[in-house]
Amino acid sequence: MRNAERGTRNSRESSSRGEDLALLLRVPTSAFRVLLLLLLASRAEAQVDPSGTWRTLHTPHFRIHFRPAYRDAALLEAREAERSYGLLATELHPPRGVVDITLADDIDAANGLTTVAPTNRITIFAAPPAGDHGLLFFDNWLRLVTTHELAHVFHLDRSRGLWNGLQRVFGRAPGLFPNEYQPSWVTEGLATYYESKFTNAGRVRGSLHTQLLGADRAVGASRSPWNATLFTRWADGLVPYAYGSRFLHYLAGAVGDSVVPRFAEATSAQLIPFRVGRQVARVAPGHTLDREWPRGTAPDLAGTSAAPPAARVLDSLLRTECRACRRMDDEWRTCGTTGRGRACCACSTRQRDARWPPTA
């Protein structure tokens, strides 16, 4: 009898809890709270398993956290981190405090994560990018990802003016780092620009970004500074990396290398942090974001992935379908042409079109 009563009581309690949950989700304010918690929750696959034994290597600017089995990789990471720190410090203001780097191998994916609140922390997944076409152009994976993520730390940690005063009062609270408000093409573009400048490879010179920009340009759908952001349309998350890094590379070539660090300094103090165009005009007099953007995001930008002379000669001899060809009599007429779609003499006149297809 007691067991039956206990079971009835438990069933009633569980039913009551279910009704409460349903009522909770029907209340708009509570639903918004649940949605907010879901948005703030990190993805499970991005979490590093803290169980087991961990070790820490100390360097002048870093604490490298690793499992004992990855000691050799951690020693290499310590050297690469200090190397990247020294190079980035020649252009950007050094971050505050020691940077924590966690070397993990929880997932079979090549990636890195950076946060600056409440402290500067980097997580690096050590698996090399065997299947990621956008990351295949590198000399050393740890060097590339470390330079990229550390550039984020240098960029996002920098806070001046009112923002620095707010941090002195409220601490390193989320939302008080002005460069975090920049468009994704600025934050990811700057890190990709420096990964390419301070390594022997990098995605600015990689072929995938050139193809991405070329595909957008070919269909007349090149991005503007206002929609070259994450997950808007193809190519989704690759867009800000390709457009941002290529534009900053162009701006540095047109104005001088110092324009990128001056731009990062300017945005770290502006009261309305998302106003990128104003700071471009300030650090590059005579240049505006709207005017320079189409030039800076051109697929064939000089100094990126231009083909060597021998490759250009070979390309000029390739035979492809001519751009002047049109569909006639429900068939595609193809003709000989040189590369890059230059019209051939066989289809340069309407008289030739009138003789197609040939009669028997």
Global shape: globular
CATH class label of the largest domain:
Mainly Alpha
Number of strands: 7
**Percent of residues in beta strands:** 5-15%
Set out the fold topology.
Blueprint: H1 2-26, H2 28-40, E1 55-58, E2 62-66, H3 71-88, E3 99-104, E4 111-115, E5 121-125, H4 141-157, H5 162-170, H6 184-197, H7 207-218, H8 239-255, H9 259-267, H10 276-283, H11 289-296, H12 309-316, E6 327-328, E7 331-332, H13 350-354
Parallel strand pairs: 2-3, 3-5
Antiparallel strand pairs: 1-2, 4-5, 6-7
Describe this structure in words.
With 360 residues, the protein is α/β, with parallel strands linked by helices. It contains 13 helices and seven strands. The chain has helices at residues 2-26, 28-40, 71-88, 141-157, 162-170, 184-197, 207-218, 239-255, 259-267, 276-283, 289-296, 309-316, 350-354, and strands at residues 55-58, 62-66, 99-104, 111-115, 121-125, 327-328, 331-332. The longest helix is centred in the first third of the chain and has 25 residues, at 2-26. The chain is globular. Mean pLDDT is 79; it is low at 1-28, 38-45 and 326-360.
